[in-house]
Amino acid sequence: MPKHHIFATSFAKVYPYYVQKAERKNRTKDEVDQIIYWLTGYDQAGLQHQIEQENDFETFFAQAPVIHPNSSLIKGVVCGVRVEEVEDPLMQKIRYLDKLIDELAKGKAMEKILR
């Protein structure tokens, strides 16, 4: 089965859309970054490096310092897909990130988003 095209998509190209989605709902870039730090273990320098290198999602998650152990607690539907039922580990991580950004844009408190 061929890889999904999102795996080869540059994280740097998608990142501004995460920020825009949050800002449209009066949330901040810092909150988006905080979610990414929590999920992936990146710090500010590591995230900036990933953006500058224009790494794809596959590399972005492969190089992540640590996926948060509570990420498996992320449940719900994003883009019509139940994240806890996604079988491909990389796709599931991408959906986790999408779900967290959705929760932020929907006004959920950071304490609830960062389980």
UniProtKB/TrEMBL annotation:
InterPro entries: SP1917_dom_sf, UCP033199
Superkingdom of origin organism: Bacteria
Protein name: DUF2200 domain-containing protein
Record organism: Modicisalibacter muralis
